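Input record, target 12 of the design panel.
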C-alpha cells in the first residue's frame, strides 16, 4: 500500500439500528487503493452490516460515504455499482437454477448486433475468466449442482468480472481448500498491484498476516481500533475482538470411549463415497478430514439418509440397516448439522423459536397440536444455553450472524436429544469466541456420553478436537490416525501421498 496515497473510500460516523439492537454505532472506516484492509470482529460485531451499508443493501441511519473525498448523497446499490464497488457476501447471492456463465454475467449480459443475448461470447469470456484464475468449473453447470467451494469461487469470479475498483470479500476462504486459498491470494496480490482496494473479512486469524496491510477491529457495533498488520500481534487483535481472554480454543477432556454407537461397513454412494468403513463410539469425537471434494460431506449425507446408498451397511447401536432415511435417523437418535447452515440447516424466514423446535415436533407435540407456550419454553431454554445474540425468540433466522445461526442449528438438534451427532464444518465462517463456545459444548456432549462425527477443513480443529481421525482422498478412506498425529501426516494422507 502506498503510504502517501489518499483514501479511495471513507465511511464516516455510520450508524444503523434494527429492532432491539444497535448494529452500528458511529463507525469510521477507510480504504486506500492497492490495499488489503482486513475487517475483523466476533459474529454480531457489525462487520457484515457495515459492508451491506457500503453495498447499498442497507441504508444507514446516519453518517456519510465519500469516494475520492467526494461525499455521495442518496447512497444505494446502483450508486455503489457505479463507483466500482463489488461485494462477495458470506451467504451466496447466486441464482441456483441458472448456469455458472449466466450468474457471472447477471445484470451485464452481452448482446449481439440484433439485440439478442450473445451466449457464445458470454460462455467464451466466462471460460477465459475462470481459466485465468485457475477455477475448474463447467460454465454450463447449474449453480445448484455445485459444491460450496465451487460456488464460492464462482462468486469471486462474478465480482472480478465487474472490474471492481473496491472489492469486498466476506469470509472468502471459509469453504476453500489450501490450494484454492493460495489461488485466491495470488489473485488478490495481482488486484493490489493494479490499484484495487480490497476489504477482507475473515475469522481465520492467520490470514491477517498473510494478506493484510491494515486491520480494523469491531465489537458490539463499535470501532475498537485500526492497526498496521506489521505492527501488531494476533494476541493483541484477539484481545481487541473479544474484550476478554480466550483461554482454550480446543477445550477437550478426554475419557475412555464407550460402546460402538455407529458402524459403517463398505458404504458406497454416488461418485464420491467408495467402500467406506468407519466406527464411532459413545464418548468420543471422530474427525473426518480431507481436501474439499474428497467425499467427506457425501459420506455424512449417505449415513444420515440424505443421499441414496448403493451398497454397504450402517449399524446404529448394533442394529444393522442397509440404508437410513432422515426420519428414521432422527428416530434412532441421530442429528445432522449440515455444511451449509443457511441453505440446509435453517428455515431462514421463520423465527428463532420456530427453528429450534423444527427437528423435535413429534417428540414435543405427539398429539400434533402445537402448544405455543411449550414451544416458547423450549426455545427460550436453548437460546440461553447457546447464548444466542440478540436473545430474541421472534427474530427471523436470516437476520442472525453466521455464528449465531450455527448456534441455532445446534440448538435445533439438541432439542431433539440425539445420542449421535454428525457435524459438518462446526465452526465454518464464525469468530474465535463462538468457536471456543461451540468446541466447549461439543466436549460437554461427549463427556455426557454422546458420540460426534465431525467433518472439518481446518486442520487445527481436527487435531485439537478429535479422539481419532479418518482421512479421505478421492472418495476413499486413505488412513486412520490416533490422537497426537501431526498436521503434516494428515495433509500428506489427504493428498494421497504416504
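The sequence produced for target 12 reads:
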Amino acid at each position: 500500500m502506498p503510504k502517501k496515497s489518499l483514501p479511495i473510500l471513507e465511511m464516516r460516523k455510520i450508524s444503523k439500528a434494527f429492532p432491539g439492537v444497535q448494529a452500528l454505532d458511529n463507525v469510521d472506516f477507510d480504504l486506500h487503493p492497492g490495499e488489503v484492509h482486513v475487517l475483523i470482529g466476533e459474529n454480531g460485531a457489525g462487520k457484515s452490516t457495515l459492508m451491506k451499508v457500503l453495498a447499498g443493501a442497507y441504508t444507514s441511519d446516519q453518517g456519510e460515504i465519500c469516494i475520492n473525498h467526494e461525499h455521495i448523497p442518496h447512497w444505494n446499490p446502483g450508486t455503489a455499482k457505479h463507483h466500482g464497488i463489488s461485494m462477495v457476501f458470506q451467504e451466496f447471492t447466486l441464482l441456483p437454477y441458472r448456469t455458472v456463465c449466466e450468474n457471472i454475467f447477471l445484470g451485464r449480459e452481452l448482446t449481439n448486433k440484433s439485440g439478442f443475448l450473445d451466449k457464445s461470447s458470454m460462455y467464451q469470456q466466462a471460460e477465459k475468466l475462470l481459466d485465468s484464475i485457475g477455477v475448474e468449473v463447467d460454465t454450463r453447470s447449474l449453480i445448484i449442482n455445485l459444491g460450496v467451494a465451487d460456488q464460492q469461487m464462482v462468486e469471486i469470479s462474478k465480482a472480478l468480472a465487474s472490474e471492481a475498483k473496491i472489492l469486498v470479500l466476506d469470509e472468502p476462504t471459509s469453504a476453500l481448500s489450501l490450494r484454492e486459498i493460495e489461488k485466491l491470494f495470488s489473485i488478490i496480490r495481482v488486484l493490489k498491484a493494479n490499484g484495487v482496494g480490497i476489504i477482507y473479512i475473515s475469522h481465520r486469524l492467520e490470514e491477517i498476516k498473510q494478506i493484510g496491510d491494515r486491520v480494523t477491529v469491531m465489537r458490539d457495533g463499535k470501532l475498537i481500533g485500526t492497526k498496521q498488520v506489521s505492527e501488531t500481534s494476533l494476541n493483541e487483535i484477539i484481545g481487541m475482538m473479544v474484550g476478554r481472554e480466550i483461554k482454550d480454543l480446543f477445550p477437550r477432556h478426554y475419557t475412555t470411549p464407550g460402546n460402538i454407537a455407529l458402524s459403517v461397513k463398505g458404504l458406497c454412494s454416488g461418485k464420491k463415497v467408495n467402500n467406506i468403513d468407519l466406527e464411532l463410539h459413545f464418548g468420543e469425537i471422530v474427525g473426518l478430514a480431507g481436501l474439499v471434494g474428497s467425499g467427506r460431506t457425501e459420506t455424512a449425507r449417505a449415513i444420515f439418509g440424505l443421499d441414496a446408498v448403493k451398497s454397504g451397511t450402517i449399524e446404529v447401536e448394533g442394529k444393522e440397516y442397509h440404508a437410513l432415511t432422515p426420519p428414521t435417523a432422527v428416530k434412532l437418535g441421530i442429528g445432522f448439522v449440515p455444511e451449509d447452515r443457511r441453505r440446509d440447516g435453517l428455515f431462514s424466514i421463520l423465527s428463532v423459536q420456530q427453528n429450534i423446535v423444527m427437528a423435535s415436533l413429534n417428540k414435543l407435540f405427539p398429539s400434533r397440536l402445537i402448544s405455543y407456550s411449550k414451544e416458547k419454553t423450549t426455545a427460550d431454554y436453548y437460546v440461553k444455553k447457546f447464548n444466542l445474540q440478540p436473545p430474541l425468540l421472534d427474530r427471523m433466522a436470516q437476520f442472525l450472524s453466521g455464528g449465531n445461526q450455527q448456534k441455532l442449528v445446534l440448538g435445533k438438534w439438541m432439542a431433539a436429544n440425539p445420542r449421535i451427532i454428525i457435524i459438518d464444518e462446526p465452526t465454518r465462517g464464525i469468530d474465535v469466541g463462538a468457536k471456543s463456545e461451540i468446541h466447549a459444548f461439543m466436549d460437554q456432549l461427549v463427556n455426557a456420553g454422546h458420540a460426534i462425527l465431525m467433518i472439518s477443513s481446518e486442520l487445527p480443529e481436527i487435531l485439537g478436537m478429535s479422539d481419532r481421525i479418518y482421512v479421505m482422498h478421492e472418495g476413499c478412506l486413505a488412513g486412520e490416525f490416533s490422537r497426537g498425529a501431526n498436521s503434516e501426516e494428515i495433509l500428506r494422507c489427504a493428498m494421497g501421498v504416504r
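The chain has a mean pLDDT of 89.
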